[in-house]
Design goal:
With 96 residues, the protein is an alpha+beta fold. It has 2 helices and 4 strands. The strands form 2 sheets. A two-stranded antiparallel ribbon has the order 1-2. Strands 3-4 form a two-stranded antiparallel ribbon.
């Protein structure tokens, strides 16, 4: 089955469109490449607003902070030798 993209106006296979339960045919009105381009342009225009919203939501989420801290601790424990070796190489390179 085929569908016409609302962005590029090309007729494409149904598989070229993302799934959307809100649409009658079950697919987004924009093909994946047009949807990606629209999202990129939206982010460029609203980057500050998006970053501020993300930062605020993470700042107020105690559960997120706890999970983040725990992940960092676990990662360090698992990769301690690699991290210290990399830091030593970096420090040795800076002394030259």
């Amino acid at each position: 089955m085929n569908k016409k993209c609302s962005g590029c106006k090309e007729v494409k296979e149904f598989d070229a469109f993302g799934i959307s339960k809100a649409m009658a045919d079950g697919r987004n009105p924009y093909c994946r490449s047009c949807a990606r381009e629209r999202e990129r342009r939206y982010y460029e225009r609203n980057a500050d607003k998006i970053r501020a919203r993300r930062k605020a939501s993470y700042a107020n989420d105690e559960n997120y902070r706890n999970r983040s801290r725990q992940y960092t601790k676990d990662y360090y424990q698992k990769h301690r030798d690699e991290i210290l070796a990399k830091a030593a190489r970096k420090k040795a390179g800076a002394k030259k």
